[in-house]
Amino acid sequence: MNVTLLLQLAVSGFLLGGVYSLIALGLSLIFGVMKVINFAHGEMMVWGMYVAYTLLLWTGVDPFLSFLVSAACLFLLGYALQRTVVNRIIDFPEAMQVLPLVGMGMVFENSARLVWGPDYISPRSRFSLSSLSLGDLMIDVPKLLAFSLAIIITIAVLLFLKKTDTGKAIRAAADNRTGALLVGTDVNRIYAVCFGIGAACVGAAGGLLVPIMPLSPHIGAPFTLLSFIIVILGGMGSLSGAMVGGLIIGVAESIGPELITSLFHGAGLDLDFPHTMKQVVSFFILIVIMLLRPQGIFGGRRG
Amino acid sequence: MKKTTLISILGFLILLVLPRFLSSYTLGVFILIFYYAYLGQSWNILTGYTGVISLGHSLYVGIGAYTATYLVMTLGLSPWIGMWVGGIVAGGIGLVVGYLGFRFGLKGVYFVLLTIAFAEIGRLVILHLKVFGSFQGLFIAPTFTFVNLQFKENIPYYYIALGYVIFSLVVVRLIERSKIGRYLVALREDEDAAESLGVDVFKYKMIAIFISAFMTSLGGAFYANYIYYLHPGTMMSMASSIEIILRPIIGGMGTVLGPVIGSFLITPLAELSRSYFSKAGYEGLHLVIYGFLLVAVVLFFPRGVIAYIKKRV
Amino acid sequence: MKKLSRKTFLRRPWGVGVMAIILVFPSLLFSQPKEIPIGSVQAVTGVISDIGIAMRRGNQLAVDDINARGGIKSMGGAKLKLLLADYEAKEEVARSESERLIKEGAVCLVGPFLSGAAMTVATLCEQRSIPFVIDVAAADDITQKGFKHTFRTFAISTNFANNMLLYMTQIMKEKNVSRIRGVVTNTGDLFGRVQGATFLKFVKEKKFPIDVLAHIEYPLGIQDLSAEVSKIKTLKPDVLFPITRPGDAKLMVTELYKQRVPLMGILGPGSPGLYEPEFIRDMKALSEYVMDNVPWVNPKGKMYAEVNARFSKLYPGKYIDTNSGYAYLAVMVIADALERAKSTKSADLVAALRKTYLRQDLMVGGAVTFDAKGDNSNADSAMIQIQGGAVKVVLPDKAAEAKYVFPWPKQLWDRGM
Asked: What subunits make at least 3 CB pairs under 8 angstroms with C?
């Protein structure tokens, strides 16, 4: 067992997990409050990436700053989406919710393609090639920055929900929609703001990812699935759960194949767990959690 | 004779005679309409009676396709027979999914994710099996013989696909009329009431998922010998599962003709938007339009098209 | 003289003759088609759309060029018309779209890059008896099913591997390297797997002096290669032999930089992702000295110079590469067959295609000619290297426009980026 390798993998996975957490954060809000299965989540993230990329191209502003613009743009998009489409499907059974959002996902993906073309783009920015050495370990700087900013954003959103009037209204509407209606809350507006914030989170995540991974209109779908796994793992509606869940999944996918291979070899099996199957690790974790502790790690608020 | 029965019989007769008037391409479109109507109908059996949504039904299509093909490759067994073996395997996997889902009380999005997880794991596992071609996929030997469910022209495929649809309609009818059917309907109407009356809810849900998985996988054998290439990435993907549920949802879940109507709406819609809007320089426009159409259809027909028609008729 | 009425006119033998000519002449005129439709099946949306678009452009440019030169002269200057189809990287769409093109009158199909779709379309063309010229798709299997209507202009995997070892032998001899420690990586898709496996097989069978320390495959569509590159780093290889796609190629190079993996070079055994203009644009100095063994354009070819000039003018920032080049060539092959067949009937066209001997200097390799299975026996690959921000052919010597550089003089992180 190569300990240095495993340690390096764990560190890389941990940092990447921070980014995953941010993506899942948005979904946690949307799903936790409105119970909407946002199948366009990954594609919305991709739009966030493109906004930050375009700013980089036109003004040279680094994505680690312009992610805020991505967040703002996606907030507006999310707000609009909620008021036009999501609002009408909130009370639908799950199956009927899936389709319109899948349709919107297709719209986002292909309109991004029409605007920016199909090529993979790996733009250069200030930190995109930076790394730090800690002894034998390599710390990926863009991932570190994304990780740190993700935590800051999570804390900001948590404070918003706890301290502001709108935030409290959102939490109230999430807990008891009828009750909120009865006391006069404009539930529609609350939901729209909530969806907007969720979209803003995923837009910010997209911006932060620009220095880390190549952009293309079609990279969104796997992230939607990943966010769902993380949200369930962490506990629906739990923002800290999304954070912890993301870190766990990040590490698991990174270290999983090597660890399992080492275990196989240790047990005398001449079998390698292929890297191409690394997603099986996350799905397996998902199944186990759903069976043994469906409310997730931090869940418990709602059954 | 009821009006709807008359219309159905008329429709069926028209479909029988149609092939002599249609081009190979249009026949191909009809074949896909029937194929997806069949898959949607099979999927519907699970959702219509148990209320749980499966977004991983492409797993069963894959199992059916690969099992039937494997038997052709190793034993020279005709897919006409092999498909039933595939059905048993798929039904078995369905039972596993059902056991985990129903026993552990997974509902709503949890069940959806369970089915997705199984489908994805299945896809990844098959993707790594050399015997099924791994990343290269499996090229099906073109023999164009009836025994191998292969033909040169589209007309035989058309009738077989139509046969699949009729078969699914018959199965659904038989289920509804049978003793099992009575319990399943009770389940659909009110699960808690059924349970309090002593119905073994778990057992009947398992029956529903077995039948659903079994039927779905039979379609896989057809697909393999029509498309001549199998790859888990395209046929066992989430996108593929979504294609399967599109038709019954839009047509009307839990109804007998819903998947068929839905398929007649969706498949030509996709074809038309592709041929009209797939212009040079605007690649992807047809998918944007298709996406908007999906949203629009669900917003306008939230209970499915059939419910809308029923209200008006 | 008796009045020349119609009846009497027709009683004269020459009357019948004249009548016959008058009746037949128009149909003689109209039997020459004014327009010959060819169907282009490419994936312009979906996961490989960047390649699909490049290929559609290659198909279209060839059609336009041939028409500008007077069309199919042996058929009265009939112009080619390219019917477009997008199969979205899905086989069932490839099938129905091809069926549509055939219905719209396509006399021949060209495409599709993905081997799975190629198989589906080839089967369909066999069923409908329509010729099909595969511009790019490397899976050997396609031409091993006994299809009579399928032809392939692209090289097959064994060809790639053969040439790779040939070039490696030369490089190692000239640079006095006796053994190379290498890691082979590939994307988890058909081409990646086949290329990787064939390369490894050849190395093993010919007992080539490359120590393969590991063979790493990663999922298609992967967005993070840190785990894989960490593993590569621990193995301390001399050379990386990657088979990538455009997305993960950039990811790989970036990650190698960040993790400071020292190498003598990156040598693709035959890989997309390492030569596209987008790769050079985004990686800049990091793309320098990357080598790849691909069926490339012939830099010394007159046809190449002309076609590339037109292509780059139409699509600024782009140039003719492996995929667009073969897409262009395939249409030329079809036009050439039409010229010789003098007919658009399938049987005539297939017979003409079989006898193809098309001299060309657009792509590296000799004249296009098909063997019994339909493969282009003269398809060849060249070793290219990125030098000074441009792709240069460095081997074989007779087609080289520059000398290869190996090992690379500066590691990725010493290049001022």
From this structure: A, B
- Residue A302's pLDDT is 45
**Cβ C218–A276 below 8 Å, yes or no?**
yes
Of B135, B223, B228, nearest to C190 by CB-CB distance is B135
* Domain-wise residue ranges, chain C: 35-155+300-354, 158-294+382-414
Whether the pLDDT of residue B310 is over 60: the answer is yes
Q: How many beta-carbon pairs under 8 angstroms link A with B?
A: 125
Between positions 208 and 247 of C, the ones with CB within 8 A of A are 216-219, 221, 223-224, 226-228, 230-231, 234, 246-247
Assign 3-state DSSP to chain C and report helix, strand, coil percentages, each to 5.
45, 20, 35
Instruction: Supply the range of the domain harboring residue B102.
Output: 27-236
* Residue B148: CA count within 13 A, CB half-sphere: 20
Range of the domain at A92: 13-218
Model pLDDT, residue B313 = 62
Mean pLDDT of B245-249: 89
Q: What order do you get walking across the sheet with C180-187 strand by strand?
A: C210-218, C180-187, C239-243, C265-268, C291-294, C382-387, C390-395
- CATH for C35-155+300-354 is 3.40.50.2300
- Distance CA(C129)–CA(C113), nearest Å, equals 21
**Residue B131, Cβ density class (10 Å: 0-12 exposed, 13-18 middle, ≥19 buried):** exposed
Q: Which CATH class is domain C158-294+382-414?
A: alpha beta
Distance CA A275, CA C311 (A): 39
Assess whether pLDDT exceeds 90 at residue C238.
yes
Instruction: Note whether residue A1 is domain-resident.
Output: no
Beta partners for C40? C84, C110
Note the pLDDT tens digit of each residue in A173-220: 777 767 767 777 678 888 899 999 999 999 999 999 999 989 999 899
Reported confidence tier of residue C20, pLDDT bands at 50, 70, 90: low
CA distances to A18, A232, A250, C80, C400 from A289, rounded to whole Å, are 20, 8, 16, 60, 59
pTM recorded for the entire structure:
0.88
Say if residue C112 is preceded by a cis peptide, omega within 30 of 0.
yes
The count of structural domains within chain B is 1
Is B243 inside a domain boundary? no
Strands C265-268 and C291-294 turn out to be parallel
| Residue B91's pLDDT band (cuts 50, 70, 90) | very high
Residues of C within 8 A of A212 (CB-CB) are 224
Does the interface predicted TM-score (ipTM) exceed 0.90? Answer: no
On the question of pLDDT at A303 being above 60, the answer is no
Give the one of C216, C228, C259 whose C-beta lies nearest to A131's C-beta. C259
Q: Is B23 on the interface with C (CB under 8 A)?
A: yes
Which residue in the set C84, C117, C126 is minimally distant from B280, CB to CB?
Answer: C84
Option in C49, C230, C276 nearest A9 (CB): C230
B4 vs B231: which has the higher pLDDT: B231
A55 is a domain residue? yes
Q: Which residue, among B245, B253, B269, B298, would best test binding to A if mutated, counting the most A CBs under 10 Å from its CB?
A: B298
Residue B271 has pLDDT above 90, yes or no: no
A214 near B CB under 8 A: no
Q: Please report which confidence band the pLDDT of residue C1 belongs to, taking 50, 70 and 90 as the band edges.
A: very low
Residue A211 lies inside a defined structural domain of this protein? yes
Instruction: Look at residue A183 and tell me if it is in a domain.
Output: yes
Distance from C-alpha of B176 to C-alpha of C282, rounded to nearest angstrom: 61
Q: What would the pLDDT profile of C240-287 be if each residue is shown by its tens digit? A: 999 998 889 999 999 999 999 999 999 999 898 999 888 999 999 999
Helix segments in B178-257, DSSP class H: 179-189, 191-196, 201-227, 232-235, 238-251
* Among the ranges given (B26-30, B180-184, C291-295), the one the predictor scored with the smallest mean pLDDT: B180-184
Q: Would an 8 Å CB–CB cutoff place B129 in contact with chain A?
A: no
